[in-house]
What does this fold into?
Amino acid sequence: METVNWTDALLTGVDEIDAEHRYYFEILHRFNKARADGFDPRRLRTLLNDLLAYIEMHFRNEEAIMREVGYPAFERHIAGHARAAKAIQDTFAADPTDAQVHEFLNSFLSRWLINHIQSEDRAFGEWMERSGKSV
Ligand SMILES: [Fe+2]
Ligand SMILES: [Fe+2]
It folds into this structure.
C-alpha cells in the first residue's frame, strides 16, 4: 500500500475531528508496519477490522457534530459517508482474497478517505469558521 502521511493540509480546524483524523493515520501506520513485518494473516484481518470500525465510529461522531451545529451540507456529507460505509461492508461481506483487500486498501483508504478529508471535511471546517460556530 502507498505510504500515506498526515500533513497539516488535512486540518479542518475542528479539534475533535482533527484528533480523530490524526488517530486514523496512526492506526494506518500500525497496519502498514504489521503488513511490512509479514504478520500472520489472521492478525492482519483483526487490525483491518479495528481500522474499519474506527472509520465508521468517526463518521458517526463527525455527523453528530454537523447535526448539532446545523451544517447546511449535512445531507450531502452523510450520503458520502454512507456510500463509503457500504463499500467497506460490501467488500468484506464478500470474503475477499488478500489481493482484493490490498486493492481495496489502495483505492479506499489511501485515496477516497484522504480526498474526503481534504475536500468535504475541510469544507465543513471552513463553513464553521465563516459562520463563527464552535463545538
Ligand atoms: Fe472525517
Ligand atoms: Fe466526513
Observations:
- The pocket of fe (ii) ion (ligand 2) is lined by residues 62, 77, 81, 116, 120-121 (CB under 6 Å).
